[in-house]
Every structure is written in C-alpha cells, then in structure tokens.
Inverse folding.
C-alpha cells in the first residue's frame, strides 16, 4: 500500500481528492487507499485528526496529490475494469461506496471557509448584472473630444469585435446612395441616411460630410466584424459621449464613447428578443461559447481591457485577464462554479476551457472598478478538465471522472421511493435556487431517431420548444455509476411534488449538452432530490400514468 510520511499538522490541509485519505495515528503515516476498505470504529476520529492545522501544509498537499495522481485512472482500479459489469463484485460495490463517502467528506473538510469572499463575489456580480455601473462612475473615464481622432483611427480587424464607430467623415466616392437633402457639393445635408459602397448605413444630421447631434451607424460591413450598430451623440463627425453599442450576438453595451470608442466600465446585457433569435439561428454545438449572458469589463479603445467576467447560462462565470484582442484567452483563466467558490483554473481560448485543474477562490481585489479574484495555488489535483461536448456518436468527456462541484453536494444510493432503484441524495444542506447536479448525455438533433431503443433516459434540452428541441440520451451501458459518473442528474427520480427542476445550463466541460438541476426549495442533508419528468401522460410509462392517477 503506497504511503508517505506524515508531517506534524498545525493548519488545515487543503488537499482535495476523489480517493480515500486515512490517517494512522499510531504509526504517524498517511495512507492513501483507493480500494481496500478500513471500517474501524474510530474512522471518523482519524479523519477529524487529518483536519488539524499544519505549518507545512503545502509540502503535505504536494506529497498527497502526487500519490493520488498515481491512482487517477479510474478506468482500472485494483484490477477491476469498470466497463465490464460482470467483474463488479458485491464487495467492490460496498468498498466503492465507502471510499466515495470518505472522499466527499474529505472534499468538504479540506475546503477552507471562504464564505465571506463567495458572498462578496455573488453580491457584486448580482448588483452589476441587475443595475450595471452608475453613470457617474462611468463618467470618470470620459476624455476630452479630440478632433485629431481621424488621424489615429483604428479600422476593422479580423477576429476582433471592437465597439466603435469606424466612420469619421465620408467622401463622395464612398457613398452609394443618400436618403435626404443634398448640399451644393452633393454631400448629405441636415437629417439624412447615407449608404456606403461597403454596405453600411450612417444616420444623423449632416454638415460638410460629417455628422453632428444624435446618430447611428449600422450595416453589413460592420456585422461581418460582429458589430450590429453603434449610436450616440456626434460632434464634427466623431461619436463622443454616452452611447450604445450592440453586437450581433444580441448583447448591448451602454457607456461613454471617447473619440469614437467605447471606454470605461461597462456591463454587456443580452436583449431578450434579439439574444434569443441570435442563438436559435445557429448550431450551439459549434458555436457554444456565444451561449452566454452578461459580460462585465473595463473597455479601452472599444475592447475589453484588464479583468473581465463572462456569465454562462445557468450561473457559472468565466473570469480572468483578457488578451490584446479583448478575449478571455490565456494560461490563468478560470471557470467559476455557481457557488462562487469552486473553480477550474488553467488554459482557455476565447472562453473555451482547453486545460484546467481544480482549485477554489482564495482572495479578491479591484482594478478600474472591476472586481477580480485569485485562485488558490498550488492547484489541488493533476487531473485535467477540458471542454468535451458530446454528440449523437458518443461521449468525449472522461466518463469516470466526477464533476467536483456535483461531488461535494450529492451521492447515489438506494432511493427512498418504492421500486425506484437508485436515487440522488444531498450530502449537505442546499438552499433554494442552488444548482445541485448536472444531466449530461449524448446530444441528438430535434426529431432525429435515437440509436437507443430504451427511452428511459431521454430528455429535451428545451422544454419550451419540445418536441422541436434537441434532446439528450444516456445509453443503457452508461446508466450505472460503474461506467458513467461524469454527471449524476440521470439518477434523480420523478415526483409530482418535486424539490428540484431542470434548467438550461452551460458547463465548462459538457458545453450546452447538459441540463442543470436547481433546487426549488431548501433541502436538508440526506434528503433525496426529485424532479417532475413532465412526460406527456398519453405517451408515458405505465408507472407514470399510475402516479398521475393517484395525485
């Protein structure tokens, strides 16, 4: 059995593990066990001792994690191939449950109490997404108008979504048509609409080929670069003052424009109708990372600058310092789970998680009105999480690695509902509105026949559009936690008096091929989670029809 020498403890250990960590007080050795169960009477005391404080906690964490990583391949633990159901013995089943219970306890014990930090993050994000930045705060970033702006003007750049007005003045050669009056030289005069040869439309009050007063710019050329329109007050052709920019994803940004460029702290807000239309018209599987909500950042020259926040559907956030193109790209970007504490930190590209590891939020700070957070280092495990969406052809996620957020809140055991088999239970107190679990599966396009003839685990991704919605399915060979435990939402049983509901969710690994499970009320430790399956009664299983009649 692999062991490491124990280090005298004087501060709480912060090592996380999905394997069992036991402390032998007599020999003063730390034993990391992945298979053999040690059911002695003082087990809880031993784990409690492990929570004692340690002055050398970083060294201990490093040693423990190195040994835990030796057992990170969950596909073959202690000689058992979990893809072959006939090799699972009753002893192994009991041992696995005992190990997972100990691991969950260790996860909860080893995370420090950062509730005040999590509360501050949640409150700040809720405040900004609800009300944005105060106008006087944004006004601090207003610069004097410069009539030399034309000389330093930045043009469109491929792959860069910049919120700015690229037009200062127009030459007659640039004009395709004019709606309105013309002056003696053929330029637009007073209120007029100008269409350029590039396909853009410039609206405003015109004098000598430039705009003044309120106006806006929009059109095909701007849309090619992700910008649907900009509008606001113009002076001598320059957009300067409080205005608005709208992206073709449906996000609107209101703030101050300096010499044509959006600048200062701004919250990008999705306009419900245009946002919905934008995301119903594209394939979410190939353009998942526009499936998001609010964006918060400080703008400079029309681009996010410094720290930025990008909300994802369901309550998660991507956060970090943006690159020169204003994208959340880099080696120190994080995904923040909806508890505003647990996070995955590592390499992201345009918000896509390429390589990240588990950590938690340790501190926060401020830069140019934007809150930023810092994760605990060293990172807690060597397991690499990455964006791994499914398709109808199969899973790409590691099916045997649990989601760390879900693992700290749930466990699978025999259901309290008669004849229901297994169920999912709370391992901690849950508050109303909390996300507790995830339902991931193979994704099928709407009305496409499923390869799996058993439809027990088929579920629509969008209840409103059903039956014209894409749907998820978990093949029969993956319904057991022996072969699939990347998510556990499929273990939740039905109730017409449910305490949870399915919601749309964007997950850093699963993408939009997942539903979140949200608590409808407070749920106590040990209580079973339930949801309303919302079957069409006439096409539902017999057991569902019987329950329906018994209401």
């Amino acid at each position: 059995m692999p062991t490491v020498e124990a280090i005298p403890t004087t501060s709480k250990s912060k090592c996380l593990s999905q394997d069992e960590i036991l402390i032998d007080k007599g020999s003063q050795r730390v034993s990391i066990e992945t298979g053999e169960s040690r059911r002695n009477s003082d087990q809880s005391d031993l784990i409690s001792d492990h929570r004692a404080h340690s002055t050398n906690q970083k060294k201990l964490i490093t040693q423990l994690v190195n040994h835990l990583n030796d057992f990170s391949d969950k596909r073959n633990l202690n000689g058992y191939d979990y893809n072959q159901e006939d090799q699972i013995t009753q002893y192994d089943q009991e041992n696995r449950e005992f190990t997972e219970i100990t691991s969950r306890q260790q996860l909860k014990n080893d995370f420090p109490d950062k509730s005040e930090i999590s509360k501050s993050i949640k409150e700040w994000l809720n405040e900004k997404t609800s009300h944005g930045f105060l106008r006087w705060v944004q006004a601090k970033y207003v610069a004097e108008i410069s009539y030399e702006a034309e000389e330093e003007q930045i043009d469109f750049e491929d792959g860069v979504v910049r919120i700015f007005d690229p037009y200062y003045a127009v030459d007659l050669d640039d004009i395709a048509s004019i709606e309105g009056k013309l002056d003696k030289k053929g330029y637009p005069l007073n209120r007029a609409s100008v269409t350029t040869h590039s396909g853009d439309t410039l609206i405003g009050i015109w004098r000598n080929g430039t705009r003044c007063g309120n106006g806006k710019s929009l059109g095909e050329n701007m849309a090619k670069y992700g910008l649907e329109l900009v509008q606001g007050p113009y002076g001598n052709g320059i957009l300067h003052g409080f205005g608005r920019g709208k992206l073709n994803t449906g996000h609107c940004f209101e703030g101050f424009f300096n010499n044509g460029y959006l600048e200062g702290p701004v919250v990008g807000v999705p306009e419900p109708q245009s946002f919905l239309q934008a995301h119903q018209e594209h394939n979410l599987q190939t353009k998942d990372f526009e499936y998001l909500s609010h964006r918060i950042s400080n703008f400079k020259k029309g681009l996010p600058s410094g720290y930025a926040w990008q909300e994802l559907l369901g309550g998660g956030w991507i956060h970090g310092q943006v690159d020169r193109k204003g994208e959340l790209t880099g080696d120190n970007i994080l995904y923040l789970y909806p508890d505003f504490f647990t996070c995955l930190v590592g390499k992201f590209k345009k918000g896509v998680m390429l390589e990240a590891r588990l950590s938690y939020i340790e501190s926060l700070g401020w830069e140019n009105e934007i809150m930023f957070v810092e994760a605990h280092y060293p990172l807690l495990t060597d397991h690499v999480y990455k964006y791994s969406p499914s398709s109808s052809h199969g899973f790409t996620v590691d099916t045997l690695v649990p989601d760390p957020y879900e693992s700290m809140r749930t466990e699978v055991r025999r259901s309290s509902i008669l004849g229901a088999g297994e169920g999912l239970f709370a391992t901690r107190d849950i508050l109303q509105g909390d996300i507790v679990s995830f339902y991931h599966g193979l994704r099928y396009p709407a009305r496409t026949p499923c390869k799996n003839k058993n439809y027990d685990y088929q579920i629509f991704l969008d209840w409103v559009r059903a039956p014209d919605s894409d749907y998820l399915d978990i093949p029969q060979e993956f319904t057991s936690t022996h072969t699939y435990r990347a998510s556990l939402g499929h273990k939740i049983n039905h109730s017409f008096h449910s305490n949870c509901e399915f919601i749309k969710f964007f997950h850093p690994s699963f993408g939009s091929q997942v539903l979140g499970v949200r608590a409808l009320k407070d749920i106590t430790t040990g209580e079973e989670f339930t949801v309303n399956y919302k079957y069409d009664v006439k096409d539902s299983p017999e057991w569902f029809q019987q329950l329906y009649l018994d209401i």
